[in-house]
């Protein structure tokens, strides 16, 4: 493609030079009028279109950014070569949010990028709250501040922090009225969704990260296995939410927790019953 364009430019340049000589020397009574010049400019502009990033005429400005979108795609694919699989317990709505964005971008690109921007800031904020103790956390302002802080805390790899920041920036530009072509919007949405999946995966792992690990004696282990536990859950019915208390041994507790993400209730307390 590049070679074809270069050949075309050389051809146009040669024809232009020939016309200029003929027009100046008045050979063969050839004249170059304003219409011919305008058409020549249009031909050159079309040839250079793949390399144009901005066209400005007075107060009118159009953004054309295929290069930055390709750069973003290359960065994301390099560091997240395949869709990430959640190694720990997945968060509810994790895949739903990413899928909703990639579905919506086909219908309304700007709305999809706005949703992507919101979801990215939401997961970045949740990551920061998990990473930093609430009592000493000064919440950064905006997604950019969250990315910088999480990168400095080594919660986000530096290789991906620039890609996340770039997705946020591109989404902001689209939201504030800059023109985004459909193929570019789809690329941004798809790569942003992959980053969103990655960040939710990181969040799930950080949330289950042990805060303290201590060795115990075998006798103490035996007591934990044989003990009974008081488990309190809440069912959030719309009209009359209820609280449920169960007394379970270890085997029953395991059965309760199996597939628990599908239940319509959530645990609020687990405590060992003293004998």
Structural account:
With 275 residues, this protein is mostly helical. It has three domains: 2-51; 66-207, Four Helix Bundle (Hemerythrin (Met), subunit A) (Up-down Bundle), CATH 1.20.120; 218-272, Dna Ligase, domain 1. The chain has ten helices and five strands, in the order ααββαααααααββαβ. The chain has a three-stranded antiparallel sheet. Strand 3 (228-235) and strand 4 form a beta hairpin. Helix 1 packs antiparallel against helix 2. It is elongated and about 115 Å long. The protein starts with a helix and ends with a strand. Residues 84-94 have low confidence and may be disordered.
Task: Summarize the SSE layout with pairings.
Layout: H1 2-25, H2 34-48, E1 54-57, E2 60-63, H3 66-79, H4 94-107, H5 109-131, H6 142-152, H7 158-175, H8 182-207, H9 218-226, E3 228-235, E4 242-249, H10 250-257, E5 266-272
Antiparallel strand pairs: 1-2, 3-4, 3-5
Helix pairs in contact: 1-2, 3-7, 3-8, 4-5, 4-8, 5-6, 5-7, 5-8, 6-7, 7-8
């Amino acid at each position: 493609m590049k070679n074809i364009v270069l050949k075309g430019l050389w051809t146009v340049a040669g024809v232009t030079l020939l016309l200029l000589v003929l027009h100046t020397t008045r050979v063969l009574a050839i004249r170059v009028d304003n219409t011919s010049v305008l058409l020549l400019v249009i031909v050159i502009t079309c040839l250079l279109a793949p390399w144009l990033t901005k066209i400005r005429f007075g107060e009118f400005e159009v953004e054309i950014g295929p290069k930055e979108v390709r750069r973003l795609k290359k960065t994301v694919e390099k560091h997240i070569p395949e869709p990430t699989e959640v190694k720990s317990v997945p968060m509810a709505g994790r895949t739903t949010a990413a899928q909703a964005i990639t579905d919506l971008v086909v219908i309304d690109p700007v709305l999809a990028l706005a949703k992507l921007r919101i979801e990215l800031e939401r997961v970045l904020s949740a990551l920061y709250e998990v990473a930093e103790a609430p009592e000493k956390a000064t919440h950064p302002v905006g997604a950019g501040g969250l990315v910088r802080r999480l990168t400095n805390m080594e919660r986000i790899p530096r290789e991906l922090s620039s890609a996340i920041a770039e997705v946020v920036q591109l989404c902001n530009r689209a939201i504030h009225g800059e023109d985004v072509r459909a193929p570019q919007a789809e690329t941004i949405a798809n790569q942003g969704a992959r980053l969103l999946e990655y960040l939710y995966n990181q969040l799930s792992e950080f949330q289950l990260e042990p805060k303290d690990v201590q060795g115990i004696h075998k006798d103490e282990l035996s007591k934990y296995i044989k003990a009974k536990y008081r488990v309190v859950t809440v069912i959030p019915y719309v009209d009359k939410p209820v609280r449920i208390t169960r007394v379970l041994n270890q085997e029953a507790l395991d059965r309760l927790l199996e597939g628990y993400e599908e239940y319509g209730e959530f645990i609020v307390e687990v405590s060992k019953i003293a004998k």
